[in-house]
Amino acid sequence: MPLAPRRARRARRARSSGAGLKVVAQAGVLTFVVGGSVAFAQASAEAPEPTSAATVAAVADLTERSREVASRSSARTQNLTVVLRGEKTAVSTAAATVGAALTELGVVLADDEAVSVDPTTPVAEGMEVVVDTVERTTVTEVEVVEHDSQEKPDDALVEGTKIVETSGRDGRSSVTYIVEKVGGAVVSRTPVTSVVESEVRDEVVRVGTLKLPDAGAKVLSPSQARALAKSMVADRGWDGEQFACLDKLWTKESNWRVTAANSSSGAYGIPQAYPGSKMGSVAADWRTNAKTQITWGLGYVSGRYGTPCAAWNHSQARGWY
């Protein structure tokens, strides 16, 4: 046979064989899309042609999706224990809530029964749910109502000074509840009576807003000196009653005048120190500085009488302090 015809026939057979391989490969890829990764392995065996990057990416994506679906299916199943009227049962459920899980089991509650867990609670791995008769008891508890604190601006106090005007006190109430339990777990607490034993009283704090000039640079007015003294009394821990006594004492002595001088006795200043030079133990500006005078006067009252009220009582009885 001539050489040319034989070569032509071999070429036709080769083309026919190649076309067959390509069809098989395409069919294999189609089968994978429908049937999964096993079919792709078969197609690879039948069609050794190199696969494209897009085909490889598609295979990987579908495989990952298959794993995710399997994982989600497994995660939806939870194991829990249901104690139904004293009998324990291990349950595996895909229900989303406790109520749905009990419905799957065909649990129907009697009128005097309840569930230890709110039926809307999501099912969780290992949880225990009790269905049983409700136990009702009555309990009485003393409850504390905490007091609040309120601040009131006071322009008679030096800026930044805080004085408690009204002390706070917590309130107390006696409350009676009907408590319902299922399997030892409290499922409801309903208040039925409440008796107030003591009323709550809010704390009231006065906060100073008065801005004073430099006590050393200017002689303070009586009202300014009084405001300064009120702040200094509070800093010592004395309350409003003690300041009221001091106010009456020094109003009587000097009417809160920094330069008040007693020509007959030589007493001087707001506290009427005798002689006035005693206040030099605090600072050399004792003649004009209200803070220096008040500092000395408070120290004198504390050291000799203990409190301003004790000093005022002595002044009322003796005419001096």
Overview of the molecule:
- InterPro entries: DUF348, G5_dom, Lysozyme-like_dom_sf.
- Residues 131-211 form the G5 domain.
- Keywords: Signal.
- It holds the Pfam family DUF348.
- The chain has 4 domains: 3-75, no CATH class; 78-133, Ubiquitin-like (UB roll); 137-203, Resuscitation-promoting factor rpfb fold (Single Sheet), CATH 2.20.230.10; 212-318, no CATH class.
- The strands form 3 sheets. A 4-stranded mixed sheet has the order 2-1-4-3, with helices on one face. The chain has a 3-stranded antiparallel sheet with strand order 5-8-9, with no helix packed on it. The chain has a 3-stranded mixed sheet with strand order 6-10-7.
- The relative contact order is 0.07.
- The chain has helices at residues 3-35, 37-46, 53-75, 98-104, 222-235, 240-253, 290-305, 308-318; strands at residues 78-84, 87-93, 113-115, 128-133, 135-145, 149-158, 162-166, 171-182, 185-198, 203-210.
- The chain has 321 residues and is of the alpha+beta class.
- Mean pLDDT is 82; it is low at 14-51 and 68-73.
- It is rod-shaped, with a radius of gyration of 47 Å.
